[in-house]
Amino acid sequence: MFNPQFLLLFLLFLSFLFIIPSPKHLQISLPDELDDVALFRRATLAALDAVSAKSKSSPKIAFLFLTNTDLHFAPLWEVFFRGHRRALYNIYVHADPSAAVSPPGGVFDGRFIAAKKTQRASPTLISAARRLLATALLDDPANSYFALVSQHCIPLHSFTYMYDFLFRHPVPGARLPSSLPLYRSFIEVSSIKPKLWDRYAARGKDVMLPEVPFNRFRAGSQFFTVTRQHAEVVVRDRRLWRKFKLPCYNMNSCYPEEHYFPTLLSMEDPDGCTGYTLTRVNWTGSVGGHPHTYRAAEVSPLLIHQLRQSNSTTYSFMFARKFSPDCLQPLLRLANLIFAD
User: Where would one find the signal peptide in this protein (predicted)?
Assistant: First the structure.
């Protein structure tokens, strides 16, 4: 027979293995959390005064760059923005402070926001995206669409094409209280992803309850283009964040940055979301949870054409990832073709 004391010690050891969070999981410190809460509160209060200001100027697209390396494709983005008035766009960069990212200058000059350390498969990526949204909300009431992209993203169309696509397709007949047109957010929202239950239970079987029952849990792309009203929903949220910021015990199924935003917005305003993203990602041959990374030899006019194609006749992809730094020069050689649409 087993010694009862030995059995108890063995069970305690097992509980330590399966309950204590992985040391690889980056925790959000209390000072960082309080700092973010103050920022989000300011953005929420500012949103109450922004309606009249929005109607007095042209709507803008806020490009939100989330990076932990240098912005290798900054020269390509420079070409993308060239010749367009800053009255139509803003740029914000959240660069991991531990990565010593070099500001590229040009249109990115002075666009780096106060940032905190991030880590893949942790709620720090959610915090970074919320920080970008809050900063852009505070900075300019004319910011009407918020496009979150990574350092590995490239644009697939000209700025004019993208701007016209976003602002010439409001929801028919829909209006905000300010009489401004109502637009929809381009964010992937899916309830049929493989291993969705494993991702839901990554923090523990019932931990997400009661705020997020499994039948309301959604998956989607980490990168999205959302409206101002949805950006405001994100920075106001406290209820779902309390669940998604909890540490995961199953790190193999922990991707909170791919679930928080589609779950929140589908619960708050399902009709306001298209259900698809504007960022093309190739998951064929993915490695370690990372999508296919394009190399210089793969860059061609045909690749750009293929990346633009969606399974819909109503829209084209506007961004694509993931590209290695050595793709920059081949892409610059194709810039006139890419941005001629």
Answer: 1-21
